Amino acid sequence: MLRIAVPNKGSLSEPAAQMLREAGYRQRRDSRELVLADPDNDVEFFFLRPRDVAVYVGAGTVDAGITGRDLLLDSGAHADEHLALGFAGSTFRFAAPAGTVTSVEQIAGLRVASSYNVLVAEHLASLGIEPAGIVHLDGAVESSVRLGVADVIADVVETGTTLRAAGLEVFGEPILHSEAVLIKRRGGVDGGGDPAGLDVLTRRLQGVLTARQYVLMDYDVPVALVDAAVALTPGLESPTVSPLHDSEWAAVRAMVPRRQTNQVMDALYDVGARAILVTSIHACRL
Length: 286
Ligand SMILES: Nc1ncnc2c1ncn2[C@@H]1O[C@H](COP(=O)(O)OP(=O)(O)OP(=O)(O)O)[C@@H](O)[C@H]1O
Ligand SMILES: O=P(O)(O)OC[C@H]1O[C@H](OP(=O)(O)OP(=O)(O)O)[C@H](O)[C@@H]1O
Ligand SMILES: [Mg+2]
Fold this sequence. Notes:
The structure is a single chain. It is built from 8 helices and 15 strands. By secondary structure, it is an alpha/beta fold. It folds into 3 domains: about 1-85 and about 180-195, D-Maltodextrin-Binding Protein, domain 2 (3-Layer(aba) Sandwich); about 90-175, Periplasmic binding protein-like II (D-Maltodextrin-Binding Protein, domain 2); about 215-280, Alpha-Beta Plaits (2-Layer Sandwich). Helix 3 packs across helix 4. The longest helix is centred in the last third of the chain and has 16 residues, at about 200-215. The structure holds adenosine-5'-triphosphate, 1-O-pyrophosphono-5-O-phosphono-alpha-D-ribofuranose and magnesium ion. It catalyses: 1-(5-phospho-beta-D-ribosyl)-ATP + diphosphate = 5-phospho-alpha-D-ribose 1-diphosphate + ATP. Pathway: Amino-acid biosynthesis; L-histidine biosynthesis; L-histidine from 5-phospho-alpha-D-ribose 1-diphosphate: step 1/9.
């Protein structure tokens, strides 16, 4: 039975549960449940603090886990990213009161507050910059400068709303682009390969990612224009082209990136395609 660690609260928890549900797994009904067996799928879920997921995976007491790339790197755990999951996207950045600090080099000799000390220390060391110290805080890091325990902060930024509300501005390049990731133990099981069942979990999650990123497009097009139309909808491998009762027309079906749906429909219409239909993909295995 594959043992999978899942965040029990915070920004990652609900979207992780939703993705697993879409991948056909049972998920808990009560947010206080700590363990959930799903015997039909031969997996067991352990609901753990987002920060602790990498620790358990690194120790090998669970086989895989869902966490943030930033949390994984900060943990120093013996675990690696296996699959990017496309949600909980954020950047990890330095910020300071507007106009006070404008370059990363200026951090030398200053106090930096963060919940991600390891990440910050490694990043500054790699740049050869020595801060006066790194102050570890559990959260609400944006308040630390106003309250006098630090001069700059390093924190998760998504929309920037929290920073603005605290009168802070980002400076320097992003330290990291993060998102939710599926992780596994570094070096495999007892020095061997991946844990049994990880391949199935991975294919299922990839199926959800594909179903979210693509739509299915159907259209009719005059046979003489099939090549021009198909060039606009090459699909993943090759589009399906079927004959129609009217032998001068053909029907085409192809997967199209969801973001390009309307541009592709406009272009197909211009080429001469008609009856263009778009449907969502519920699940898939590529
Ligand atoms: N506003 C946000 N938008 C997108 N991702 C975020 C946001 N805040 C946090 N994250 C991501 O979620 C993960 C951390 O989750 P969260 O903030 O819920 O944990 P935590 O701060 O340890 O928990 P809590 O805040 O409940 O104590 C990180 O991977 C981080 O990049
Ligand atoms: O750029 P924004 O969209 O404003 O989002 C970023 C904020 O979200 C997270 O905070 P969270 O809600 O997890 O609180 P915490 O600081 O207590 O962890 C993060 O630590 C930032 O403070
Ligand atoms: Mg948080």
